[in-house]
DNA sequence: TTTCGTTATACCTGTTGAGGTATAACGAAA
DNA sequence: TTTCGTTATACCTCAACAGGTATAACGAAA
C-alpha cells in the first residue's frame, strides 16, 4: 500500500458539557479543575497543576458560581497560608454527575468508532 | 419562588464529529452542507441556503476532500449554469454514517438530561 | 466570440478573545 | 504591626481567526 493511500482510520470524537439557560456550566476542564481544588484546597495550586494561569482558573470558577444557584467553590483570602478554596457539596455533586455522563459518552464513542471500520 | 431563585434547569449538551488522524473530517455543519449540495447541485446555492459565505463553504469542502482519501464533493466550472457540484458516493456514505452516530448521541443527551432532574 | 453564473483563489482588515502582567485586598500568625 | 501566600480584579497587548471583497478561470450555449 503506497503511503499516499495509507488506510484512513476514522474516529468518533466529541465533547460534552452540562448547560443551564445561561450556557455552559461544567465540562471536562472545569470538572478537572474542581477535582484539583478539592485535592489542593487552593485555586492557585490547582491552576498550576493544570498548567493554567490563575486568572483563567479564577474566571472559570467565577463563571460556575454565577451560573449555578449554589457556589461550587467557596474561597477565602488572608490568614494562614494566605487563603484557601474548598469544593462545596454541590460542587461534588456536579463532579459525580458529569463523570457518570462522560463515562457513558466515552462508551458511545468507542462503540461508534468500531462501526467505522469498513 | 423568587425570580432570583428560579429553578435551575440542567441540560446535557455536546458536539460530535468524525475525525481522521489529520483532525476533524465531518460534523453537523459539514454534513448539512453536503446535504444542501446534494439538494441544489451547487456550492453557491448550498452556501446561501445555510446563510454561509461561498468562501467558507468552499473551504469546508476543500478540507473534507483533502482529509478523506476520496473526494466527497466533485465540482466543475464553466458551461451551462456556470458550473455544478455533486456529492459522491463516498460523501453519501459519510452522511449516513454521521446521521446514525448523531441519532444515538441525541438519544444519550436526552436520556442524561432526564437524570439531571433532581 | 460574447455572455453568463459558477468555481477557485488571493488578499486585506477588523475584532475578539486568550493570556500575561501588575497590583490591591485580606487576615492569621509570629 | 510586619510578614506571607493567597484571593480578587483591573488593564493591556498581540496574534489568530472569521469574514468580506475582489478577481481570475472556466466552458457550454447563444
Word description of this protein:
Two copies of one chain form a homodimer. Chain A has 118 residues and is α+β, with helices and mostly antiparallel strands. Chain A has one domain: Winged helix-like DNA-binding domain superfamily/Winged helix DNA-binding domain (Arc Repressor Mutant, subunit A), CATH 1.10.10.10. Helix content of chain A is 52%, strand content 21%. Chain A has four helices and four strands. In chain A, the strands form two sheets. In chain A, strands 1-2 form a two-stranded antiparallel sheet. In chain A, strands 3-4 form a two-stranded antiparallel ribbon. In chain A, helix 1 (28-40) crosses helix 2. The radius of gyration of chain A is 19 Å and the shape is elongated. The model of chain A has no long low-confidence stretch (mean pLDDT 92). Chain A binds a DNA duplex (30 and 30 nucleotides) through helix 2, helix 3, strand 3 and strand 4.
Index terms:
two-stranded antiparallel ribbon; DNA-binding; homodimer; Arc Repressor Mutant, subunit A; alpha+beta; 118 residues
Average pLDDT level of chain A:
92
Quickly name the level 1 CATH class of chain A: Mainly Alpha
Largest interface: A-B, 28 and 28 residues
List how many beta strands of chain A DSSP finds: 4
- Would you identify the regions of chain A where 5 or more consecutive residues have pLDDT less than 50? none
Give the CATH H-level superfamily of chain A: Winged helix-like DNA-binding domain superfamily/Winged helix DNA-binding domain
Shape of chain A: elongated
Q: What is the name of the CATH topology of chain A?
A: Arc Repressor Mutant, subunit A
